Amino acid sequence: MNHRVIKHNLRRTAASIKWVVFSIITGCIVGLLGTAFFLCLSFVTTLRTQNPWLLYLLPVGGLAIIAMYRLLHNEKDAGTNLVISAIHYNDELHLRTAPLIFVSTLITHLFGGSAGREGAALQMGGSIGGSIGKLFRFDDKDKNVMIMCGMSAAFSALFGTPLAAAILPLEIVSVGVMYYNALLPCVISSLIAHSIANHFGVAAEYFSIGKIPGFTVVPAVKISVLAILCALVSIFFCMVIHKTEELYKQYLKNTYLRIFAGGCILVVLTLLAGSRDYNGAGMNIITQCFQGSVRPEAFLLKIIFTAITIGAGYKGGEIVPAFFTGAAFGCLFGNLTGFSPALCAAVGMTSVFCGVTNCPISALCVSFELFGFTGMPYFLLSTAFSYMLSGYFGLYRSQKIVYSKYKSNYINKTTI
């Protein structure tokens, strides 16, 4: 018996050492690449801001993106859905995804497409992590852990939230089931990538809420109403994103024509809006929301701009636009009700993020890392409402709802 116990402990120790080693390797590689990606994004964003005429080249930039994907035989790229499918169904996740999403996202941001960066990070990190697993001949289950490990590292390096980055890949793949076997590798790779990003001057995001109202009945009711509305906004966000993509594919079957037309539409919409606030990721506008300054229609316009961008074939992601949408809607709610616009912007950000990703624990982690722990009761309450009332909608159609949100029933269905 003692011999078997010793043998079992040795196996567990060897497995732990293996994951520590490979999570360090992944964290270092993806952390460096994620840091470079962040710095390049900052550069092209500054370049676009200083040269507004670059917007008119957006349709041409779109053609370049399609040409690159065709040149590298990656025409059927499904974005973050492919990364999730690789974990569910062992679909092939090629290493070439990393440089493609890197360059194509830079092009999208340089010319004013409305997209985020974290979706790109999940694809980039997942493809590198999976490729490392493939290189060392890991079996399918271990390779899936490596994919999640890479996702954590990239998200952490880009957004500066190592806690949320470690949890998100475990939670986003299958709603109702957490991949706890990947916890240690994801934590280590996330922390290492975060440290590397900090070393090269990538500052973590943080938004000051200021004085937070005491958690009493009336404020709790107001935040609950906001959370319910944010759940509806998140449903609307997902529906518009998916429907726009379907309309593009229905009426513009040629990918070159589709992305060129999408670029032209974005140029016209930008001129009609009379503002460049909805181009790029929009982190500067999120900051304004915490100062109580936002146009009433901002959240709606960001949804439209993002749907047209992503649906046409431009690259990036939908998570930061979801943050923008939530912050703008929350700030508007706060201004209309006279209840702390900054707190409402924070609650809006995390509630809409939770609603579109179906990841309540990750949303809570994001709230603590971006806004501090003082507003915990508000974030806890709003995240719970948003998760429950956002239904089975989601940004990623490869995501599975394993257990019902309403009963302890096994349903195993994909998101709408």
Keywords:
416 residues, three-stranded mixed beta sheet, 3 strands, mainly alpha, 16 helices, globular
In short:
By secondary structure, this protein is mainly alpha-helical. It contains 16 helices and 3 strands.
Describe the structure.
- With 416 residues, this protein is mainly α.
- The protein is built from 16 helices and three strands.
- A three-stranded mixed beta sheet has the order 1-2-3.
- α1 crosses α6 (140-159) and α10 (255-273) packs antiparallel against α12.
- The protein is globular.
Task: Produce the secondary structure layout.
Elements: H1 2-50, H2 58-71, H3 80-89, H4 97-110, H5 118-135, H6 140-159, H7 162-172, E1 174-175, H8 183-199, H9 217-251, H10 255-273, H11 283-289, H12 298-312, H13 319-337, H14 341-357, H15 360-371, H16 376-389, E2 400-403, E3 410-414
Parallel strand pairs: 1-2
Antiparallel strand pairs: 2-3
